[in-house]
Write a structure and sequence with these properties.
Blueprint (H helix, E strand, L loop, with lengths): L1 H13 L4 H15 L8 H15 L4 H10 L3 H12 L10 H22 L3 E7 L5 H14 L7 E8 L2 H9 L1 E2 L9 H7 E4 L2 E4 L1 H4 L2 E5 L5 H5 L4 E6 L8 H14 E9 L13 E5 L2 E5 L3
Helix pairs in contact: 3-5, 4-5
The structure holds S-adenosylmethionine.
S-adenosylmethionine binds next to loops.
GO biological process, one term: methylation
EC number: 2.1.1.80
Enzyme class: transferase
């Protein structure tokens, strides 16, 4: 009993992060991903990285920082670090009012414009796509809007995230009922195959989406993304400080084709970040247009 008790104390002691270790790791994470962890979220690093220390057999967070900088396996550990510090909360049909605006106003406008130009090409970028619910939702909405005409279109939804873990499950396209908690039943019945209590996204939706790892703090990589008619970056910039937000939003501006739109999360704002876009107000959603 007493040895168990003393072990708990030791373990507890091992897992504490000092102020200077926290500052080192916080700055390192910021530099590598743009994710800013405020002082009052120190516990987040402590809790989420404790397991990494145990697995790597490191005695404190100082050693972990050293490992991330110099160990020969540091590249693989960066993936673990990103997986640990990102928040991947998402769902199909997240924020319905915004998606309604996309479906009823924005999409018809862009599709009509493309038909007039006789190009029938559509490029959408889902930046910070997590486990794939957002880009697949957009794919479903496109199928719903275009019906059989979709076969005459050249459509690509580019979906990126920092975390390899989430990209792996996004590519698999297999979901639990929880991921569908905000999805109308008719949509679930039409676009998913139920199998052993799971829900598999249909191949015709899956094939519209291309997943890949992109760190939004890497401007050079961002420049390589094909130019888009629409960008969805929802519930991602909330984790960045203003400097990083400015960097990311200006890359989105450069990437968007004229007349294209940027969608951000409903609790996010471009106030104090940029005046380059024209905010377009709709009931339940503000979206941002790149003007001529
Ligand atoms: C809360 S999820 C949002 C998912 C989806 N966009 C939505 O609204 O449901 C935020 C995602 O952004 C990703 N992310 C955070 N920082 C990133 C960065 N620097 N580069 C790329 N993705 C990042 C995280 O890995 C996470 O999957």
């Amino acid at each position: 009993m007493s040895s168990l008790f003393s072990k708990t104390i030791t373990l507890g002691k091992e897992l504490k992060i000092s102020d200077s270790e926290f500052a080192q790791l916080r700055d390192f994470i910021y530099q590598k991903s743009g994710i800013f962890i405020a002082d009052n979220r120190k516990y987040l690093l402590e809790n989420r990285l404790a397991n990494r220390l145990k697995i790597l057999n490191l005695k404190d967070f100082g050693e972990y920082y050293y490992y991330l900088q110099y160990d020969s396996k540091r590249q693989g550990e960066m993936t673990e670090l990103f997986n640990a510090v990102t928040t991947n909360e998402t769902s199909f049909y997240r924020n319905p009012p915004q998606l309604q605006v996309f479906q009823d106003k924005v999409l018809p406008e862009i599709l009509e414009d493309q038909r007039k130009k006789r190009t029938r090409t559509l490029r959408i970028w889902s930046a910070g796509c997590s486990t794939g619910e957002e880009p697949y939702t957009l794919g479903i909405i496109l199928h719903e809007a275009l019906g059989s005409e979709i076969s005459t279109w050249n459509i690509k939804i580019t979906a990126n995230d920092l975390s390899e873990n989430v990209l792996q499950s996004a590519r698999a396209g297999v979901y639990t009922e929880y991921a569908l908690r905000t999805t109308p039943k008719v949509i679930v019945d039409k676009w998913f195959t139920a199998q052993d209590g799971k829900f598999l996204i249909k191949p015709e939706v899956k094939k519209l989406v291309s997943f890949g790892a992109i760190n939004l703090s890497d401007r050079a990589l961002m420049k390589r993304v094909e130019r888009s008619h629409l960008i969805f970056c929802r519930n991602v910039i909330i984790y960045f400080d203003d400097e990083m937000k400015k960097l990311v939003i200006s890359s989105f501006y450069d990437n968007l084709l004229t007349g294209g739109y940027l969608f951000i999360g409903h609790s996010e704002s471009l106030h104090n970040i940029t005046r380059a876009f024209k905010p377009v107000h709709h009931p339940g959603a503000i979206i941002y247009r790149k003007e001529d």
